[in-house]
């Protein structure tokens, strides 16, 4: 394969390569092998190296080098694993390149031509690989070439797909092509000689929606912070919009939510994302949401088939979904039948005899002695082989008895902290499984019974009637178990949904929660996991444990179970163990309420795995620091209100108040705002139906209260109406003792009519049962983009509020600077190459520390924003400035440090600006290769701000002004000079060079050069005077020739300014010249000297318009970064 040209050292002592062919420009070499004659020792060494190195590190056995005749520099341009492959490359070079090189006269042109040609071949190979994955490779290859030519992005910007469409500007459409790449939405049009290019980063997209205008009924609208863009005339608008949503969602989450978002393995490298990968991701997310499976589950097979359903003696049409750990079936008719079969429960997978009645049948047997018969399966042989291999792996790799592998916990180095990193996938669970071969007595005793068994409260007056209803429910459930099964792999039909909606009996609640959530599979797969986790986590102190302790007694405080040490201790163990298991979530408020209810109906270990199922599978991203999942679902709920309750949406214009009111509904599953005995029925329904149940019940509650809500005049009144309604939802069939609620509103209104919970659940299904998982997932994807962008806006506002009081920028200018700063970070994420830039963004940190940039990124902003031109010194001074700003030496700076620097450059007085320039030419900013310098940190802005001059006072007596300045400096010498060390001669020369470079192309260039020449001469004389004074040790040895014209300005006390200042060790850096040992000048001497030249004062006091700089930076930031990345 072709390689990016890289220099290699040909003359090496080991002679690892043997030349096979060569000509004037190219050499074909073979790696020496053990059997080669003439190099036994080197051959043995090479053979040993190749045997030891793994497959990824081994060197290809053949390579082609390029060399310019007469040069000792070689470039590797191709390598090959076989003789045939390398010979193909060699023949291509001889036929297409060798004769062309002879026409060049300049060797640099030859080198550039060869490098460019090889890079072109690499790009073509890449295009071919990407194109081969598309339905029409040739057309995609052509589109890829056009995309690269038209937008000139770096190679890391990969095209995903493209469509023909129109882009609207007002009412005028413009026909062209839309290109969807991994980081950008691009549009290109060329009509009637006018070229239009549009580039929208996905990270800037705030909203994607399908809408219409007066002319077109189907439009895709892309909204950013500043503009809206409409696109139409798509051949398949459904596919286009879905892919745009997926690309925007993946990119925004990858760049803005790397705290919680984990990419699928196929999307780990953004440069390899294809249309097929995105479609596969969409199927995976639907599959996991539909069957509520772990995030790590990856769908491998989807086939149409029929399932024999014994309860109605017929074949049910549907789809068979197979992943790495599950076999799932869903009927075509929604809610008719679906089945979840964990592969751990599967005993056999066999083919049956193919008959006309049972074509292509497969039998799946499970441990509960139930058999599932699937028929009419295409490619049955391959499917059975795949399942058999997976079962073999599970059985072979599954630890049994005392054979479990020993895996230690990964614990933080601080004994008081939580684990550094514990992943929540199934594979990661295995890394936490205890070594069962060494049976240890647990240090903490666990509850072996559900708390309700110890603290079971029933209504004394109506005990007979309610217990009679419980008996009826029990009989119904046991009859159902006989026919449909009593394991995870039971047949789930509309009949079981109706049973759940009636309320699960008290004695079966914990068992069925485990089955419906599939927590029972994790429980069985990880024996002793929880006990071991409790022993590891209890006693450790961290922020999560402190929050847990505060909330323990707030968890169902009215229930006797949590008025006792038994319940509180169990709750503490479960919450602490989970925070230790998953530090990304740790502990979040409302988890205590949910866990309390789980402990009432499940054993302690079972409650832990139920909590895992809720937090990691059923309500993903709900329980983290920013509760993004809950915020997304509030936005989804708001959209559902508009769709299903238009009357309410019309009267209540701001639906966000209703959505925010319902936040506790989602976080606590109604447990905190509804009587416990009623909320338990919703929890039952949730474990069976998932998140759509909460949406349905929430819509039903608003539907019942629509008339009263429409008459509300403020949000507080609406909150009272909803709270009163929720407090009066009853469950007359529950045997539990009713517990008074906290939200009781005593007013003059009539008593609220009580609503039975079973009626509310039934109405929610009848009115809003058409809501399905696929619809919810699509809305989540769409609203997640908006939620994350709103959080980014909040971060920006808080950042600006913190920074604004300390700087002189306008709010608009400060906002533009933040956008430039953030975009520089994002550009490094796009095209940085190693992905490390994404590590510089951490949403969990304080606002000022969330985004930081490195020296390379700062250098780009320095070029765009610096008010002065620096010429050839730009890159050097950018690095020095970065070292000055990076006070904590972590090689990163934040937004506040950048703005403080710019504030000094644009709004500082002459003293502050010169002080900054001075610091750029002394350590630690100025570093010479021969210096041995210990860094010296100083404050960023001078405390001395003299006000002895005004730039607009042209008649000022500068000699008198200088005298006053020197007198003041003498008085405050100790304070003022304490911050800055002296500048030696080498550093002073660099300082002068910088000043000369700053004055180029200035209108007063000649006057400035003359002024700086005068000042430089003066300062050189001052330095020599100080040097001679220090060398002689007395003022008496000062020769008359050392005097200067300005001596008539100085008073006897002024000589103190030129005395040596004690700044600590003086051997920090060696002399530049033989006579430089004691030559030095101070900042005060430089400042005083510059003040003697009015042209210099005017230059540094001149106001530079920041607005024009910002406009130029915004317009050129992208192109500058593209040029740097390409070259």
TrEMBL record:
Gene Ontology MF terms in the entry: calcium ion binding; GTPase activator activity
CDD domains for this protein: PH-GRAM1_TBC1D8
Pfam families tied to this protein: GRAM, RabGAP-TBC
SMART domains named among the record's database cross-references: GRAM (SM00568), TBC (SM00164)
Keyword Repeat among record annotations: yes
Entry-linked SUPFAM superfamilies: EF-hand, Ypt/Rab-GAP domain of gyp1p
Protein name: TBC1 domain family member 8B
Originating organism: Scyliorhinus torazame (Cloudy catshark)
């Amino acid at each position: 394969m072709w390689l990016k040209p890289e220099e290699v050292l040909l003359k090496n002592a080991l002679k690892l390569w043997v030349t096979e062919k060569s000509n004037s420009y190219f050499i074909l070499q073979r790696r020496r092998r053990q059997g080669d004659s003439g190099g036994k020792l080197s051959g043995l060494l090479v053979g040993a190296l190749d045997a030891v190195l793994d497959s990824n590190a081994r060197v290809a056995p053949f390579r082609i080098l390029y060399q310019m005749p007469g040069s000792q520099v070689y470039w590797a341009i191709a390598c090959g694993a076989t003789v045939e492959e390398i010979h193909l490359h060699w023949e291509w070079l001889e036929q297409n390149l060798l004769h062309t090189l002879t026409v060049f006269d300049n060797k640099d042109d030859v080198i550039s031509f060869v490098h460019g040609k090889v890079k072109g071949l690499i790009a073509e190979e890449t295009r071919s690989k990407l194109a081969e994955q598309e339905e029409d490779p040739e057309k995609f290859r052509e589109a890829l070439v056009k995309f690269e030519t038209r937008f000139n992005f770096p190679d890391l910007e990969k095209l995903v797909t493209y469509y023909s469409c129109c882009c609207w500007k007002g009412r005028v459409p413009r026909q062209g092509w839309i290109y969807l790449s991994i980081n950008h939405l691009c549009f290109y049009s060329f009509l009637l000689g006018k070229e239009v290019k549009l580039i929208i980063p996905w990270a800037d997209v705030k909203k994607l929606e399908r809408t219409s205008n007066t002319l077109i009924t189907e439009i895709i609208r892309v909204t950013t912070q500043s503009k809206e863009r409409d696109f139409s005339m798509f051949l398949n608008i459904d596919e286009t919009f879905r892919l745009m949503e997926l690309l925007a969602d993946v990119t925004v989450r990858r760049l803005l939510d790397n705290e919680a978002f984990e990419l699928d393995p196929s999307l780990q490298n953004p440069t390899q994302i294809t249309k097929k990968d995105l479609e596969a991701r969409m199927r995976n997310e639907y599959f996991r949401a539909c069957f509520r499976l772990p995030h790590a589950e990856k769908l491998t097979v989807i086939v149409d088939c029929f399932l024999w359903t014994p309860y109605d003696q017929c074949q049910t049409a549907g789809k068979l979904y197979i992943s790495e750990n599950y076999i799932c079936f869903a009927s075509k008719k929604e809610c008719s039948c679906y089945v979840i079969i964990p592969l751990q429960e599967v005993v056999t997978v066999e083919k049956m005899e193919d008959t006309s009645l049972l074509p292509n049948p497969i039998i799946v047997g499970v441990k509960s002695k139930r058999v599932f018969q699937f028929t009419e399966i295409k490619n049955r042989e391959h499917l059975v082989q795949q399942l058999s291999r997976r079962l073999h792996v599970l059985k072979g790799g599954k630890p049994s008895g005392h054979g479990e592998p020993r895996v230690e916990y990964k614990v933080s180095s601080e004994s008081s902290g939580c684990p550094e990193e514990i992943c929540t996938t199934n594979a990661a669970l295995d890394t936490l499984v205890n070594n069962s071969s060494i049976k240890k007595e647990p240090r903490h005793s666990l509850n072996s019974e559900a708390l309700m068994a110890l603290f079971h409260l029933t209504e004394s007056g109506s005990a007979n009637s309610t217990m009679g209803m419980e008996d009826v429910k029990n009989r119904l459930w046991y009859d159902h178990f006989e026919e449909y099964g009593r394991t995870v792999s039971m047949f789930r039909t509309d009949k079981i949904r109706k049973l759940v909606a009636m309320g699960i009996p008290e004695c079966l609640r914990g068992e069925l929660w485990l089955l419906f959530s599939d927590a029972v599979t994790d429980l069985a797969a990880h024996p002793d996991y929880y006990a071991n986790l409790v022993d590891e986590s209890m006693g450790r102190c961290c922020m999560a444990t402190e929050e847990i302790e505060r909330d323990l007694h707030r968890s169902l405080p009215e229930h006797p179970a949590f008025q006792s040490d038994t319940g509180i201790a169990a709750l503490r163990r479960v919450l602490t163990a989970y925070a230790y298991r998953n530090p990304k979530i740790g502990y979040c408020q409302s988890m205590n309420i949910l866990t309390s209810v789980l402990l009432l109906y499940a054993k302690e270990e079972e409650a832990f795995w139920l909590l895992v199922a809720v937090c990691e599978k059923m309500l993903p991203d709900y329980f983290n620091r920013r509760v993004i999942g809950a915020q997304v679902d509030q936005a989804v709920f708001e959209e559902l209100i508009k769709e299903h309750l238009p009357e309410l949406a019309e009267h209540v214009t701001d639906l966000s108040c209703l959505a925010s009111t319902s936040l506790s509904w989602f976080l606590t599953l109604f447990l905190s705002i509804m009587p416990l005995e009623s909320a338990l029925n919703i929890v039952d329904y949730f474990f069976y139906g998932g998140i759509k149940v909460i949406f349905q019940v929430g819509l039903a509650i608003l539907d019942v209260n629509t008339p009263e809500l429409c008459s509300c005049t403020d949000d507080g009144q609406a909150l009272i109406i909803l709270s009163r309604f929720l407090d009066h939802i009853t469950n007359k069939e529950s045997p539990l003792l009713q517990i008074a609620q906290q939200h009781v509103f005593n007013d003059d209104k009539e008593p609220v009519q009580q609503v039975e919970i079973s009626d509310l659940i039934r109405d929610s299904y009848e009115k809003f049962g058409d809501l399905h998982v696929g619809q919810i997932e699509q809305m989540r994807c769409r609203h997640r983009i908006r939620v994350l962008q709103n959080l980014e806006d909040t971060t920006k506002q808080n950042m600006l509020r913190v920074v604004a009081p300390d700087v002189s920028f306008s709010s608009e200018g400060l906002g533009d600077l933040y956008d430039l700063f953030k975009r520089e970070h994002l550009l490094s994420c796009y095209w940085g190459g190693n992905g490390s830039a994404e590590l510089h963004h951490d949403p969990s940190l304080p606002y000022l520390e969330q985004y930081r940039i490195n020296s390379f990124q700062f250098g780009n902003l320095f070029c765009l924003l610096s008010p002065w031109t620096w010429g050839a010194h730009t890159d050097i001074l950018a690095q020095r400035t970065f070292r000055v700003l990076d006070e904590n030496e972590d090689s990163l700076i934040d937004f506040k440090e950048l703005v403080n620097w710019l504030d000094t450059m644009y709004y500082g007085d002459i003293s502050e600006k010169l002080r900054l320039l001075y610091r750029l030419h002394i350590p630690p900013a100025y570093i010479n290769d021969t210096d041995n310098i210990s860094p010296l940190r100083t404050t960023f802005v001078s405390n001395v701000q003299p006000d002895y001059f005004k730039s607009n006072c042209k008649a000022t007596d500068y000699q008198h002004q200088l005298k006053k300045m020197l007198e003041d400096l003498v008085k405050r010498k100790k304070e003022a000079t304490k911050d800055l060390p002296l500048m030696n001669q080498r550093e002073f020369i660099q300082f002068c060079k910088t000043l000369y470079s700053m004055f180029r192309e200035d209108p007063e260039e000649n006057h400035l050069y003359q002024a700086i020449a005068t000042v430089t001469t003066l300062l050189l004389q001052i330095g020599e005077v100080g040097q001679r004074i220090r060398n002689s040790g007395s003022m008496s040895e000062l020769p008359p020739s050392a005097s200067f014209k300005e001596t008539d300005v100085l008073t006897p006390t002024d000589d103190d300014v030129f005395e040596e200042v004690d700044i600590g060790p003086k051997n920090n850096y060696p002399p530049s010249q033989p006579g430089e040992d004691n030559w030095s000048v101070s900042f005060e001497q430089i400042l005083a000297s510059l003040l003697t030249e009015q042209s210099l004062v005017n230059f540094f006091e001149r106001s530079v318009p920041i607005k024009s700089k910002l406009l130029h930076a915004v317009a050129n930031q992208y192109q500058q970064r593209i040029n740097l990345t390409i070259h």
